[in-house]
Amino acid sequence: MAGETEEAQAVPVNHDPRRLAWAYLARVVQGPSPQLARLVADNGPEEVARAVRAGALPDELVARTAARAQVDTAASDLDVVAALGGRLVTPEDDEWPQWRFLAFAGVEREAGAGEPFALWVVGSRPLAELTDRAVGIVGTRAASSYGEHVTGEIAGDLAVDGWTVVSGAAFGIDGAAHRAALGVGGTTIAVLACGIDRAYPAGHARLLRQIAREGAVVSEYPPGTSPARYRFLARNRLVAAMSDGVVVVEAGWRSGARNTAAWARKLGRPVMAVPGPVTAASSTGCNRMIREGEAALVTCAGDVVEVAGPIELRDELPMVASRDTDVLTGDVLLVYEALPASGTRGTGELSVESGVPIERVRASLPLLELEGFVGLGDTGWFRRT
To answer: Domain Smf/DprA SLOG, which positions (predicted)?
Structure first.
């Protein structure tokens, strides 16, 4: 994706005025703006775009839009994205994952909250389809071999089972999650904190192209936007919102991954964490979240589906592997456990070995024989296999 912007800008296209208005407003706000989104829903994007240019807005929106009100690169932005094989997706489009973003209604008053105003997307499949069954997998950039291995196992198994893996395309756990999904022919979404025409980190340029072919690269920021710390924090809320649940594999106590987990909790998404070595700084965040009840402990894809997957009604309880001897209790169990794996023992020996008085040993042995657990031979009692 990086390095393709110049070529893309040389291919002008005649765009629909309504789409141009959406692109203009998306650059003006660059992120969530619930107030502006409500204006657009009530009046349409073209009317609101005219109001923004004229400064004819409610007072609370003037400061939000004034700095970029005269910057109109809508046509070139749409040209750039079209040249990449992408598009601008708005709440008016069928592929807008509206039900995913409903949770933002309860957190709009928090700083940086709110559903995205619009999304720039590279990828052929509809966004709503990709996010129908999705799990966010995030973690530290300084991943250990343990973290990358566990990430690969979980993400790969989820992708094989038809889940979309959502992450942020960073080095470490994010990259491992994306690669694992792609490696098994699955789908994955990369949510960027910059324009989708920029490969960030640059070392993941090839990976991002692969993600775009098999899934989607998504950003709420228009082409050419540089990454910034506050944009990474805002990006994390989208990773959480697009997922049925978020798995943190490795994370320090203060980290972007824990910020994603915090957004997941705010949006009502289950949070899961993979436990790590108590000596590893990269696992302190996961271990502490598990200990303090902020995250469910998971070790495999099955655990993740159990926590984040749909609730299923079952006709009967799942079968649990058990031993025949699980039915034995009390003195009877002690007497049985006192028998050797091979060979025999007399009642006196069994009493000494089990600590059960000899009269209760004599009472227990016929019961064990009746149930087929033991037999009596010439030299004593023995276990039946």
So the answer is: 88-306
